[in-house]
Design goal:
alpha/beta; four-stranded antiparallel β-sheet; disordered C terminus
């Protein structure tokens, strides 16, 4: 950098323009898109006024964005890359003196080139109708001022554009680009040419100077040749793609927002669950094995062993009461809308922190103790959802309080269903699993309880 412009990037652009082959320049609208262009292997790029106005202001390219905003965006774009960038300078933001200041400002921002056009102010996007151009004299004064600013120290290349094809005629456009070349432009550009014949006429009318093509001209009704090789054969040196990156970015964001509104998972969990289901084991077999082995937590998706809380009055963990309580489990199952089991786990009474009668043998015989075990689950919701985020936000307390436990058949051979509800596309099931009672009650002479006046009482 010589204090005014980036010498290296300007020299890079000059070499690209003098080397064989056509140069493709996608248009950036911010630093990230510019960095992606460079990462994509492109040797140069453009900064599009249309795209910067849309991305920064959410406004059309109709003269709404200011010189200062464009320079600010341009500096970030140029700083993020090592490739040369040609910046859209619109009309130069005023008269000839404003044009010189614009060229100087773009040079300081780090651009290797600037595009100046001959539309009236406020300008309109090249992809719109009913554009108007200034007189020949004013158009030439803009290009002359830009070239003088370059020669006086700004150093960057001048690309001169005319919109007179759509505003006037092909003949007027051809006259202007020839005059722009004579005034010192480094690159010339006619916007919105209507056919291949017009494109060839442009290239023949302005030999010995790099010619630029806007590849997405069909939006204006112009004719487009999608092959860079064909453009090169006609005589073009630069081809810009103004809307490609911003257009696909908008479409991607709209698609993501539509997916979020519909509740579609966009991070790959449906595919993960489908793959996981291929290796799922039968949950009933896993639970039965855990009861026999005495493991404290059976789950197909969780490996964290929770802290066991020993209620007062029960002695150590090896006491007969503790053993009996570990035969009583609350089982929780979560299934998604595709039928894939996301969670299948059991919690012993010890973990739930249920208070118990002083006689350990009455743990399974007292209905109130059973309901306290269930309701302790909601009381420890913070700890519970830390282990099981699948049920975060579910009001288990309210659901369990509505359970008609007086109708439950406490058959120790199978789990007894307490709740079965749908929440947020998931099926939540909870059951009291007493199958371990017989195994845990060996030596206590406890049998299956019977219902008497709303309470279960042990026969022994």
């Amino acid at each position: 950098t010589n204090g005014f412009y980036n010498v290296d990037k300007v020299e890079q652009l000059k070499k690209l323009l003098s080397a064989p082959g056509i140069q493709q320049g996608p248009c950036a609208h911010d630093a990230l898109s510019a960095k992606l262009i460079e990462r994509g292997g492109f040797s140069m790029a453009f900064m599009s006024g249309f795209c910067v106005s849309g991305a920064r202001l959410a406004e059309p390219d109709a003269g709404m964005i200011s010189y200062g905003e464009m320079v600010d965006a341009g500096k970030l774009i140029c700083d993020s890359t090592s490739i040369p960038i040609i910046g859209d300078g619109d009309t130069g933001y005023g008269n000839a003196m404003n044009v010189k200041r614009t060229v100087q400002g773009y040079a300081r921002a780090g651009f290797a080139g600037i595009l100046i056009e001959d539309q009236v102010a406020p300008k309109a996007c090249g992809h719109t109708r009913n554009r108007k151009v200034v007189s020949r004299g004013e158009a030439l004064s803009r290009v002359r001022a830009a070239a003088d600013a370059r020669d006086e120290g700004a150093g960057i290349l001048i690309a001169a554009r005319t919109d007179s094809r759509s505003a006037c005629s092909l003949e007027e456009a051809l006259w202007r680009v020839q005059a722009f070349r004579d005034e010192g432009a480094d690159v010339v550009f006619i916007d919105a040419l209507q056919s291949r014949e017009e494109m060839e006429a442009f290239c023949k009318a302005a030999p010995f100077i790099p010619k630029m093509r806007d590849e997405e001209a069909p939006l204006t009704g112009g004719w487009a040749c999608r092959s860079p090789r064909e453009l090169e054969e006609m005589g073009f040196k630069l081809v810009a793609y103004p809307l490609s990156l911003l257009g696909v970015s908008m479409r991607a964001m709209e698609t993501a927002l539509d997916d979020l509104k519909r509740g579609v998972e966009v991070l790959g969990f449906p595919e993960y669950y489908a793959e996981e289901a291929r290796y799922a084991v039968r949950t009933e077999d896993a639970v039965a094995a855990d009861v026999v082995s005495g493991d404290l937590l059976a789950t197909s998706t969780q490996s964290i062993e929770p802290e066991l809380l020993e209620p007062e009055g029960y002695g150590g963990a090896q006491s007969r009461g503790s053993s009996l309580r570990r035969g009583l489990w609350l089982r929780l199952t979560v299934t998604n809308s595709d039928g894939v089991v996301q969670l299948d786990t059991r919690f012993p009474a010890d973990f739930l922190g249920g208070a118990s009668p002083s006689d350990p043998a009455r743990l399974a015989a007292d209905l109130r103790a059973v309901t306290r075990v269930c309701w302790r689950l909601a009381g420890r919701a913070g700890t519970f959802t830390n282990f099981l985020p699948q049920v975060a936000g579910l009001d288990l307390d309210a659901l369990l309080k509505d359970v008609p436990l007086s109708n439950v058949d406490w058959d120790s051979n199978k789990p007894q269903e307490l709740i079965d509800v749908m929440r947020g596309g998931q099926r939540i099931q909870a059951a009291m699993d007493c199958r371990g009672l017989r195994h845990a009650s060996r030596g206590l002479d406890c049998s299956v309880p019977a219902l008497t006046n709303g309470h279960y009482q042990a026969e022994h």
